[in-house]
Structures are given as C-alpha cells and as structure tokens.
Design goal:
By secondary structure, this protein is α/β, with parallel strands linked by helices. It has 13 helices and 17 strands. The strands form 4 sheets. Strands 3-4-17-16-10-9-6-7-8 form a 9-stranded mixed β-sheet, sandwiched between helices. Helix 3 crosses helix 11, helix 6 (222-241) crosses helix 7 and helix 7 packs across helix 13.
Length: 437
C-alpha cells in the first residue's frame, strides 16, 4: 500500500461500507458496549500527517469502527449463516470457526449455522460434500488442532452459481475466511447478491500468513508462524554450528512480502543473511551473498541464511512462470538455487562447506495457533458476526491503530502490503545481521 498516496489523495480511496438496508431489530445481546454508526478510526496516527491533510483535503480518510450495533438488520430467528475457509492452511482457522459459531449462537441466538466443505467449491454443483451443521458443542475442542475442520481449496468459481446455492439454502449471512484471493471471491459473491437484492451479508475474516493485506495491520496466524519459524531457524543454526564451515538455509513463506522472514530473523539473532522479495540481491560477485558468506565463515565458521519464497525471483530469467488454481504465480525455488550456487562458488574456491536446506512451510502452516493468535482469532470472529448481523456486506474485518475496523474488500485487495525498507522492522534486521557491511 502506498501510504503517501492515501495521505495525499484520500479521494482516490473509498473507505465507505455497504449496508443492505435499514437496521430495524434490537440487538438481543444485553452485555455489549454498542458502537454508534458515526464512530470512525483515523487512518493516520501521526499528528504531522493529520495536520497536512486538514490543510489540503476536504475530508480526512477514516475507517468505520467495528463493533456491535444497537439495531441489527438480520432477524436472528430467521437467520441462517454459513462459514467457509479457502486457500492455504494457516494457524488459527479452527479458532475463527469456533469464535464465529459461539458468537452467532450465544450472543445472537442464531440456530442454523452451516460449515461449507472445501472452499468455494462447496457452494457449487461440483461439490460432493454436504455442509456440516455447526454448533457450540461441535466446535468446543477444535481450537486445539491445526488446519481447518471444513477443509479448503483453491480455484475460482462462478459467483452467480454460488449465490444460487446460498439462496437455495436460505443463507443470508456468509463468513469467508481467507486472504487476497478468497476476499476477491467474497467481493464477487457480495456484488452478485446485491444485484439480485438477495440481502446476503458477506463478511471476510483476514487470513493471510504473509500478513500482506492492504489496510490491515495484523492478520491471524502470523505470530504463530513467526514463533515456529524462529524455532526452526534455531535448529538450522545448530546444524550449521556443528559442522566445519556449516551453512544453514531456511526458506519461509512470503510470495510477495517478507514480513514473516524479516520478523523471524529479527526475533532470532543467529541469522546472518535475511532475503526478502522487497529488495533484490546478487549471489555471486564482489557484492553478492557468497562474498558476504566468505567473511562470516572466516569469522564464525558457520552462517545462517533465511529467505522468503518470493525473494530473488529476478534471478530465474529463463524460467517459465506457472500459476496455481487460484491464479497465483508459482515461485521458483530460491532456496534450492541458493544452495546450488553457494556450493558451486565455494567449490571453485577450494573451500569445503557443509550446507543444509530446510523448507518448513507446510509444517508451519498446519500447526495450532499460539495464545496470542487465538485471542486475535476470537476477536476477529466476534467483530465479523457483529458486522454481518448489522447488515453490512462486502467488507473484511481490519485492525488499525489498535482498533478493529471495517475495511471494504476492494480496498483491502487493492495492493499487497509490503515491508517498508526504511521502516523499523527492516532497519532492525539490517542492524542485527550486519549484512550490508
């Protein structure tokens, strides 16, 4: 996301949330602290930027504040909800499912909740799996296991046919748990439903292990991933340290953004080289990775490299790019390239090395959420239910400046959030690794 662009031209960014109609029913919950419709969260947290906007812009950009409303649009007695998980696995999926079910059932009295099997495919005729009827008893222990009890899938489905299925089942509340591709699908469903005046609320819960959704500062599963990745980096360090001229390479998730790689590297000070998609690098030459490794091996007799899966893709010049079922460009294996190029370099110099390459991505994706992510999962689920029951649609629950917000899906998927190379995170990495010396 171009932060400066929002500050300079907020008119080019629509922060408004779609509402299906007038909210006429009293919220049945007696314990909520209600949010008034006019409550907003300011985009910029810095006074200097706020002053600049007040001087140059007619209206400063703000998010609608998330939370329970006094009046709701959907009658709980007539509401049928559905929950769907799409895309790759991520720690916390089951926590979100449990949170959605419990808040729907216990706070709003919604009795019919369907768990759609295997992603958006479960909303089409091609599906061979009936939805699962969910209730608090069914989901009581699912937070203890990784993955998703509903299953997941990739691939684009016809939004018109998915709305057909929703209407046929009488579902008027759909929760879509997923990242960029999932949310774009949710937006298509919401727009198709709105055109039909179907009065279906479509609410997204931000699931991206890369933490790269625009206008959302924090997504669930990220902290767990960093924690597990940090443990694996420690293992790679032990492997490298136990061998003469040992080199450990760890490849982590991050197709276009290096948040996990940078954060895990900073969390574990044994990392010597951190490579992310946001900044190019060379392997050979006087200013390449190999030259840096020579110096580090000469000093410490071992080194650890942590690389994001999307880093260094410019080094695969003759590679034929392929796509997965969701249309995402598949990345070439930068870890394998690093291993081969580093091995060749040191062999040509007559320097013996012992190199180990670890790719723990699927292990990290499938673990259960840690305590911090579990809390975030429940809060995201709670705010998603409040938004859906109040009749809001085509939005994702965001987190910004320590507040939960409503973010239009179009805005959240406009541009991937990336590591700021001048920001504190990357400057901290450079300081810890000394890789620019």
């Amino acid at each position: 996301m171009a932060y400066e662009e929002v500050l300079n031209n907020p008119a080019g960014f629509n922060f408004e949330i779609e509402q299906l109609g007038e909210a006429q029913f009293a919220n049945p919950s007696s314990k909520e602290v209600f949010v008034e419709e006019g409550e907003r969260i300011i985009f910029s947290s810095q006074l200097k930027n706020l002053k600049r906007q007040l001087e140059t812009c007619e209206e400063i950009p703000t998010f609608e504040k998330a939370g329970a409303r006094r009046k709701i649009f959907h009658n709980p007695a007539q509401t049928k909800a559905a929950i769907i998980t799409c895309g790759g696995l991520c720690p916390g999926l089951n926590n979100v499912i449990k949170g959605l079910v419990n808040v729907l059932e216990q706070d709003y009295g919604v009795e019919e909740i369907h768990g759609i099997r295997y992603g958006y495919k479960g909303l089409t005729e091609a599906s061979e799996h009936d939805p699962i009827r969910l209730n608090s008893k069914f989901v009581d222990q699912i937070h203890k296991q990784g993955g998703t009890i509903l299953g997941s899938s990739r691939g684009n489905q016809d939004p018109e046919k998915m709305v057909d299925t929703l209407q046929a089942k009488g579902i008027n509340l759909l929760f879509c748990i997923g990242g960029d591709g999932t949310l774009k699908g949710a937006r298509a469903i919401a727009e198709a439903a709105t055109q039909r005046k179907a009065n279906i609320s479509v609410v997204g819960v931000p699931k991206t292990i890369d933490n790269d959704l625009g206008f959302v500062e924090k997504t669930f599963g990220f902290e767990t991933s960093v924690q597990v990745a940090s443990e694996i980096i420690t293992s790679a360090h032990h492997e490298a340290e136990g061998a003469e001229n040992g080199i450990g390479i760890v490849k982590l998730m991050g197709r276009d953004s290096g948040f996990i790689t940078a954060t895990a590297s900073l969390a574990n000070s044994v990392v010597d080289v951190c490579l992310i998609p946001e900044t190019p690098f060379k392997i050979g030459g006087t200013d390449g990775i190999c030259r840096d490794l020579e110096q580090k091996l000469d000093r410490n007799n071992h080194a650890v490299i942590v690389v994001a899966e999307g880093a260094g893709q410019e080094l695969f010049q003759n590679s034929e790019k392929k796509q997965d079922a969701s249309g995402n460009i598949l990345k070439d294996d930068i870890g394998e390239l690093l291993k081969n190029e580093i091995t060749t370099h040191f062999k040509s110099k007559g320097i013996p090395i012992s190199i180990k390459y670890l790719d723990p991505s699927y292990h990290i994706r499938s673990v259960a959420a840690n305590a911090s992510d579990a809390v975030l999962c429940h809060l995201l689920a709670e705010y998603a239910v409040h938004a859906g029951m109040s009749g809001k649609t085509n939005l994702v629950i965001g987190y910004w400046n320590n507040f939960f917000t409503h973010v239009p899906i179009k805005l959240a998927t406009k541009e991937r959030r990336m590591v700021d190379l001048d920001g504190a995170l990357w400057r901290g990495v450079i300081s810890a690794t000394r890789q620019d010396e």
